[in-house]
Design a protein that fits this description.
Length: about 425
């Protein structure tokens, strides 16, 4: 067991954003000429793919590289495939990007596969047809026989600062959410559904048909790991208990799909401009981020940053051609002056990272191993894999050490090594 040092200062606090009573309706942004579907599948395996340049694609069509592939997306527009290319994402993850030149609005054609199969819904069909919906619902967790799922948690509280995407669905789409929750109960046979919301949305959440539980506004109380520890029952909070997490948007999309027989493929994003203006934007999945910037006349100057995700856990993207993904809840434009400085300054052992860490890790010691790239020692001696990836340590570090980035890289490196070893056995 790791002993903790004692730092006798006050823990810094950060609070989640609260959706305004009079929040404006989302601005609808169109894809200007193409959509790009970024599939988590290496390009090399696309050689014998089902997809070919020139193939026509229908709105709602499943886009996968092979018939049995788990990773797929749904085309949010009809059109024709104009390119299939490799893409290397954060930490060297390999993707295949399928570009679709879209048909004019008046010429959109719709895939009716979902409509015909929605009459007889099942968990298998949901896994094979609906994981590309906004909010990226994950049904694979129900097929893990080692950890049978007994509780479904719907997250109506946002997962990072500044975002109001999930709160919007609880506040404005509770009827669709109720249909989505009923659908989940029907296909899984699981009746214990818990809707997690901030305190101010507890009343409206009561119409969802789920058990409502609230989290406080202090970051990172809405993190799934902390929800399990502090909000769920003792039985459901055990690490061995199977719990399925869905976002409010994913559940609302399931409800809308079964209410209308049509797949909703517009993603809702909280968009923060350089001047701090916050807007909700509704946009087809796969639309290049540049189309959002164009809509709001947001110009990126040298040194500015585009961050997908919130300020603590988001990822800086290096091209505005990056597409809107089914789980992109937030997009932030930071001017050069707002980008947090990084420095080579050493750790001054101030202890702020230790005070804020919800996983009780001695981050000040862990970081020394990470900076020396001694990842196995970091895992064995300083609880690397207990980190829940909240990003709070980087935020508070007064030496501006990118602690969280070091942690992500270390975990990814060790996991890749383990996977390579297993594949070589
Ligand atoms: S990112 Fe990990 S180490 Fe850092 S504060 Fe969060 S849980 Fe702790
Ligand atoms: S890593 Fe940063 S926050 Fe943590 S003790 Fe060192 S200087 Fe302080």
């Amino acid at each position: 067991m790791i002993k903790r040092s004692f730092f006798g200062l006050v823990k810094p606090k950060l609070h989640y954003e609260r959706i305004d009573e009079a929040q404006a309706e989302p601005v609808s942004v169109k894809a200007s000429k193409n959509i790009m579907l970024s599939i988590e599948h290496p390009f090399e395996s696309a050689k014998n793919s089902l997809l070919k340049i020139g193939d026509p694609v229908k709105n709602g069509q499943k886009i996968a590289l092979t018939e049995k592939a788990d990773d797929y997306l749904l085309a949010s527009k009809s059109g024709r495939i104009s390119n299939i290319s490799p893409f290397v994402g954060i930490l060297g993850k390999k993707y295949t990007v399928v570009t679709i030149d879209i048909d004019a609005d008046s010429a959109q054609t719709v895939d009716d596969h979902f409509k015909s199969s929605s009459q007889t819904p099942s968990l298998e069909k949901a896994r094979d047809l609906l994981s590309g919906l906004p909010g990226k619902p994950d049904f694979t967790v129900f097929f893990n026989t080692d950890k049978p799922v007994k509780t479904i948690v719907v997250m109506g509280a946002d997962n990072d600062l500044l975002s109001i995407t999930r709160q919007y669905f609880v506040k404005n789409n509770i009827i669709s959410m109720k249909t989505g929750i009923d659908f989940l109960r029907k296909i899984t046979g699981i009746h214990n559904v818990i809707l997690i919301v901030p305190q101010h949305l507890a009343q409206v959440a009561g119409s969802s048909g789920a058990t409502v539980k609230t989290v406080d506004s202090e970051y990172p109380s809405a993190h799934p790991h902390l929800i399990r520890q502090h909000v769920l029952s003792t039985e459901a909070s055990s690490p061995d208990a199977g719990v399925a997490f869905f976002s409010a948007e994913a559940v609302s999309a399931l409800g809308a799909a079964f209410n209308t027989g049509k797949l909703p493929l517009e993603k809702l994003i909280t968009f923060i401009s350089k001047d701090g203006t916050r807007r909700l934007v509704s946009i087809p999945i796969g639309t290049p981020l540049q189309d959002i910037l164009n809509e709001f006349n947001e110009n990126l100057e040298e040194g500015d940053q585009l961050i997908v995700g919130g300020p603590l856990t988001g990822i800086s993207v290096y091209t505005t051609d990056s597409p809107v993904m089914p789980d992109s809840d937030t997009l932030i434009v930071q001017s050069k002056e707002q980008v947090p400085e990084r420095s080579d300054a050493p750790c001054v052992n101030c202890g702020d990272c230790v005070r804020v860490c919800p996983a009780s890790i001695q981050v000040n010691l862990l970081v020394r191993y990470l900076e020396a790239q001694q990842y196995q020692e970091a895992a064995d001696q300083y609880d690397l894999f207990s980190c829940i990836e909240c990003g709070f340590c980087s935020y508070v570090c007064e030496s501006r050490i990118p602690v969280f980035q070091h942690i992500r890289l270390a975990k990814y490196t060790l996991e890749s090594m383990k996977e390579a070893e297993e594949n070589n056995v």
